[in-house]
Amino acid sequence: MCGGFATRLEPITYFIPKPLLPIGVGGKPIIEYILDDVIASGIKDVVITANSKFINHFEYWSKHRLDGNGARIKFVVEKTMHNNEKFGQVKGISHAIEKAGIKDDIIVIAGDNLFDFSIKDIISHFERTKRPVVGLYDIKSKDLAKKLGVVEINGTKITAFAEKPPEPKSTLISTGIYVIPKEMLGKFNEYLGNGKNPDAIGHFIEWLITNTEVEGHVYSGKWHDIGTLEIYRQVFDEYSAAHKQG
């Protein structure tokens, strides 16, 4: 998912979409770290959503920067030029499923998150249960959790999901990684057809758990939501330091 405008990172995102922001001294963009793991996990069919304003940036990057390792990459364009026109995550996923003709199980990944764990683990969880699975992470701070999708679980079953709650009941949050079985792809249109919030996918998950059982897969390691200039600077410095040590 790369269709947003990242207004909290302005002014740099006036000129470059957040998933293409460089991380570390090597200048590797955020989305490339994600795709490296996607490809290493055996996924070859990749759909990237982008808006009209930045589609040329993504196409240039894929042509000149990306070593696809055999991945088949398709772009789906959301015809928007400004933040007040954006589709939102749920509508963007529904649009991508339709335009790309997707009929298989999917893994949805936010294009602006960085993590050092593997999506192989959540795929294995899905293959065991055949239920929707949300990647989870204990952020260990309720102040930080207020800005994210907060989850409660019983065993591995998600029992509650709240998008940016003012009083989080846990510090377990969604990583922006979701596995959805092919039988449930129509749930996105069903949700939107009921007049639900088309933006943050957390609202969709909150609705979905009232319809079916949804699993949570808890990750350890490092995870970053590149949501502000301060966090971007911190992560850039962290990856730069690691590059020098390596």
Protein described:
The protein is built from 8 helices and 12 strands. With 246 residues, the protein is of the alpha+beta class. It has 2 domains: 1-112, Spore Coat Polysaccharide Biosynthesis Protein SpsA, Chain A, CATH 3.90.550.10; 117-221, Spore Coat Polysaccharide Biosynthesis Protein SpsA, Chain A. It is globular and about 45 Å long. It starts with 21 loop residues before the first strand and ends with a helix.
Give me a quick take on this structure.
The chain is 32% helix and 25% strand. It has 8 helices and 12 strands.
How many distinct helices?
Answer: 8
| Main pleated-sheet profile | 4 strands, mixed
Could you give the order of strands across the largest sheet? 5-10-7-11
Structural domain tally: 2
The poorly predicted ranges are none
Which overall shape is indicated by the principal axes computed on the Cα atoms?
A: globular
Distance between the termini: 30 Å
Q: Which second-level CATH architecture of the largest domain applies?
A: Alpha-Beta Complex
- Give the SSE order as H and E letters: EEHEHEHEEHEHEEEHHEEH
* Number of beta strands: 12
Structural class: alpha+beta
Please give the radius of gyration in angstroms.
17 Å
Q: In terms of topology, how is this protein built?
A:
Layout: E1 22-23, E2 28-29, H1 30-40, E3 45-51, H2 55-64, E4 72-78, H3 89-99, E5 106-109, E6 113-115, H4 120-129, E7 133-138, H5 142-145, E8 149-154, E9 157-163, E10 172-180, H6 187-193, H7 201-208, E11 215-219, E12 223-225, H8 229-245
Parallel strand pairs: 3-4, 7-11
Antiparallel strand pairs: 1-2, 5-10, 6-12, 7-10, 8-9
